[in-house]
Structure prediction request, 302 residues.
Amino acid sequence: MRYSKDLLAKSPESVLVGLSRAGNRSAFAELVTRRQTWIRNLMRRCCGDSTLADDLSQQVFMQAWRSIRQLHDAERLGPWLKRLAINMWLQYKRRNDPLRAADEHTDTNTSHQDQTSVGMDLDRALATLADEARLCIVLSYHERMTHAEIESLTGLPLGTIKSHIRRGTKKLQEELSAYAETAEEMK
Amino acid sequence: MNTGHDPKLMALFEEAEAEFGDTAFAEDIMRVIDGQRRKTMLVWSAAMLVGIACLSLVASPVVTALGMATELLPTSLVSIESDWLQKLLAPINSIAAALALGILAIRKFIRRIFD
Prediction:
């Protein structure tokens, strides 16, 4: 059955999930439109490369389309998508070992289409962190997840997560000290 | 509860958020999904065609084999002169019964080894 774009745009997310589960493509496209900002930003913070982030985001949504029937509670769409996104990122990291990735992405660190200057600086600062620490920081600051939630999502030990966030915060504060100074001056 | 969150960093993360309101990204995804669906349907159609071709090739030998099996399986292992007794014992006194017992024994043996 076909629904007009306007009707879908006004529909609550739970209805769109239900329709998508029944195979309605337009409903799923509307879900993608609504959730893309969040997922694309999350992936950008994770990988620091907007082209790669968009590729991975695309794969996340394609995976979501393939497995949306497994999502029984429409209210859980957000956490479910977040899990898909983080798993996609972890899989990507596993496939691309650090040496090869460094080789391939020498230039991609400068790929910052549609990025604000704050976004670019933040990604540059995040790039100074190790992968695990970066993920913990992104989940903590970008997603505002608790340590326990990060533990359940990533499988990392709680102590490691706390230490990554503490050290990562310190490192980011150093890297982004210029912003703190500007904020002080503005006051 | 999280501790040690720097509010300035938190604000920077918020400020760094880019807004994507366009439909091009969703359209791209749906295009790729459609392409994949078409490819999958093509592969399934090709597999079905090959399957039908294979079936038509092996149909005759399979029918012959099934006919032979139908004749062979009820054959008694031990001949019993009494007609009613032979019919009564047919479920255990036949090649089919021996085969079934053999399969059950092999299954039990495999389970004992691997469980």
